[in-house]
């Protein structure tokens, strides 16, 4: 059954056109340029999907090899950017670090004309994992990591920098799937932010910096981190059920559940849930995955609310040893493809986005003299 889309938050209103993705078109599906995300996650590498979203077609083998080689060559960070990262405190939120890193990159490698949009995007795709891990390892481990690894994929590059060793194949595979699942999602809040910015004919780094700010909040990308903060407090499924019932009674929002568009499921959930289960067995977990499953059961039974893409990402990332505060930056490393493709689409057929507001304030009145206020 399709969700009733109306009311506040521009819900259900068509705010523009896109050829990039469909969300919940038949209740629960997600497609990127006409391909089902489930099939893409099953058969492709993230770099193939990035090529599809950004350049309009799935690459052939030669195109994929060339694209990956290009991305590999762009992993290094300018000295001035490293210096800025070194000055950001350890207790900063990594999303703020990434926002600053993106903005600083825009100062050092400014997009001077829209002809450079693809190159500017590829540079960010290649070096966002470097930005986040360079800062994290410097501030947490006191090391200045060499960010120019020869890893085959963006997911492996990230894990390698984070853990200081090449990742296991299983972990590289999960990162690949995760990055595909997060890559694009029509007019969600952060993408809409990027498009509004693009509509003023601003530069790519400004559009992406703004989008990072929008993704950071717990009602959007920040939900994977918030979900982890919740589930790690539960030491058994029974404990989870008791606490969840209390939260529902107090009408608290439970992060990682519900969706603005999907009505009865988020197609990304069943995919990441399977990988979370596999990782749970791999690490011999007997708590976090069963706790997560119980949360899912309680929310559906009590509220008909389902897990969105974020919920099982929390346990999956945790099983791979990724610190919770880096969860949402991984979302950025992936969603950058969708944001940039939307910026390009907006630029190709632009009119400044400028809606109207219903005025609810005072009637026209005179300004009193300061002595009379
Ligand atoms: C990748 C992503 O960005 S996916 C989204 C990630 N965000 C989260 O997980 C945060 C938690 N979820 C939410 O806050 C919401 O479900 C949103 C923001 C995703 C969607 O918001 P909306 O479209 O306004 O939700 P919707 O209209 O379906 O809400 C219906 C009712 O369910 C409630 N509800 C929705 N989600 C939740 C939740 N996670 N926990 C508790 N109650 C909820 C709402 O409060 C609302 O109740 P009301 O009618 O009494 O006010
Ligand atoms: O579409 C939305 O509103 C949020 C979402 O799931 C996403 O951006 O992936």
TrEMBL record:
Belongs to the citrate synthase family. One of its GO terms (molecular function) is 2-methylcitrate synthase activity. The keyword Acyltransferase applies. Keywords: Acyltransferase, Transferase, Tricarboxylic acid cycle. The active site is at residues 259, 310. It catalyses: propanoyl-CoA + oxaloacetate + H2O = (2S,3S)-2-methylcitrate + CoA + H(+); oxaloacetate + acetyl-CoA + H2O = citrate + CoA + H(+). This is Citrate synthase. Pathway: Organic acid metabolism; propanoate degradation; Carbohydrate metabolism; tricarboxylic acid cycle; isocitrate from oxaloacetate: step 1/2. Transmembrane segments: none annotated. One of its GO terms (biological process) is propionate metabolic process, methylcitrate cycle. GO terms for cellular component: cytoplasm. Pfam families: Citrate_synt. InterPro entries: 2-MeCitrate/Citrate_synth_II, Citrate_synth-like_lrg_a-sub, Citrate_synth-like_sm_a-sub, Citrate_synthase, Citrate_synthase_bac-typ, Citrate_synthase_sf.
């Amino acid at each position: 059954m399709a969700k009733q889309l109306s009311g506040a938050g521009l819900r259900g209103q068509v705010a523009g056109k896109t050829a990039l993705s469909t969300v919940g078109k038949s209740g629960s599906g997600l497609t990127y340029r006409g391909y089902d995300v489930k099939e893409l996650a099953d058969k492709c590498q993230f770099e193939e999907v990035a090529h599809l979203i950004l350049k309009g077609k799935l690459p052939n083998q030669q195109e994929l090899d060339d694209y990956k080689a290009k991305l590999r060559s762009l992993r290094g960070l300018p000295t001035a950017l490293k210096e800025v990262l070194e000055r950001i405190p350890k207790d900063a939120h990594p999303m703020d670090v990434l926002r600053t890193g993106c903005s600083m990159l825009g100062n050092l490698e400014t997009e001077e004309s829209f002809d450079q949009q693809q190159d500017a995007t590829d540079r960010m795709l290649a070096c966002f994992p470097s930005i986040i891990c360079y800062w994290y390892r410097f501030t947490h481990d006191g090391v200045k990591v060499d960010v120019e690894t020869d890893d085959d994929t963006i997911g492996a590059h990230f894990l390698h920098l984070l853990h200081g060793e090449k990742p296991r194949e299983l972990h590289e595979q999960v990162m690949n799937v995760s990055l595909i699942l997060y890559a694009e999602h029509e007019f969600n809040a952060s993408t809409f932010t990027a498009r509004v910015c693009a509509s003023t004919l601003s530069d790519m780094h400004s559009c992406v910096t703004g989008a990072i700010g929008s993704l950071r909040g717990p009602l959007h990308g920040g939900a994977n981190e918030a979900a982890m903060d919740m589930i790690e407090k539960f030491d058994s499924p029974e404990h989870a059920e008791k606490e969840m019932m209390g939260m529902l009674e107090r009408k608290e929002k439970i992060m990682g559940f519900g969706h603005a568009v999907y009505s009865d499921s988020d197609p990304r959930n069943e995919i990441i849930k399977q990988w979370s289960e596999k990782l749970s067995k791999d690490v011999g977990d007997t708590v976090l995955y069963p706790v997560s499953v119980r949360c899912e059961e309680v929310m559906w039974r009590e509220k008909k609310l389902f897990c969105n893409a974020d919920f099982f990402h929390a346990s999956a990332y945790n099983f791979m040893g990724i610190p919770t505060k880096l969860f949402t930056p991984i979302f950025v490393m992936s969603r950058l493809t969708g944001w940039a493709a939307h910026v390009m689409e907006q630029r190709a057929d632009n009119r400044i986005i400028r809606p109207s507001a219903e005025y609810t304030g005072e009637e026209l009145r005179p300004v009193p003299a300061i002595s009379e206020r």
